[in-house]
Amino acid sequence: MKKKMKGRQGFYIEELVGAAALQLTVVAGGEGLSRRISSTELQKPGLPLAGHLDSLHNDRVQVFGTAELSYLEALGDDEAASRLEALCNEEPPCVVVTRGREPPEPLVQACRRHAVALLRTPLHSGEFIEDAKDYLVSRLGPSCTTHGVLVDVFGVGVLLLGKSGIGKSEVALDLVLRGHRLVADDIVEIRRGMHALLGSGPELIKHHIEIRGLGILNIKDLFGIASVRDAKRIDMVVELVEWSELEEYDRLGVDEQTSRFLGVDVPLIRLPVRPGRNMSTIIEVAARNQLLKQRGHFSAREFQDRLVRAIADGRAAASVGRDVE
Fold first, then answer.
1. Strands 36-37, 143-153: pairing kind
2. For the whole prediction, is pTM greater than 0.85?
3. 325 and 272 in one domain?
4. Does the residue 260 lie in any domain?
5. pLDDT digits over 200-225, tens only?
């Protein structure tokens, strides 16, 4: 059962600075770290610096790269100070200078006067915008929760779904015993990033798993820090279903199915559960097969192509034999 949730309502600039991947340091305007950011978009303020303030989106992070800094240098200190004063007066969430460049003094002063956090990163503008966009979307983008279990198997994020009591947690525990890692049990929080879905567990039950007959277990305490992780990209969905003699199950694996979360399609496999089937082993093989698919090797389709060629060659040989007779 999926439950849709609203997008995040914003977070403090101080948290953006804490994102290790963005490599941000504070240059000036430290008081502005307590401001909130609520937009997933960023802006390079070329037109606003040229005097077109109506094109400024004051809810977006303003990114100053080489082009913006060169333009300010060409203006001269007095004109640059005037343009930057007008920009900071609109109170954008923060200003980021890329490539590790030294911010011009007029920009430093304008940010201090208006308490706008002035940040610096060694990343190039394109790289910073891409990484920051991904971070902002993960923090502010839409999210949902689903009843299931998320495990990291050979680096593949496997979301286990199925009705209550079918054995999702038991399979996850067996996978942990085989050296894989638990991400979340029972409730999986899913957030949409730029390129993928990210799954994690609620803070209250993080690293815990419920096994009927044993109760709540702390996997981190039982098996160590290497047996858990806080979050993982969801690469595939495995739905456990009860075996039925009346149901026809996929025998070839040629036709791919998908499951949709937050507008993103994820490969889906339906696995029937019955006594004697080692579900953990099957899921390990499914994870390895998913890695092969990501590298361009689709075993089922390759086999189908070979079979079609063999049949075609057989028919051709039979035809030649009839002609000889």
1. unpaired
2. no
3. no
4. yes
5. 999 899 999 999 899 999 999 999 99
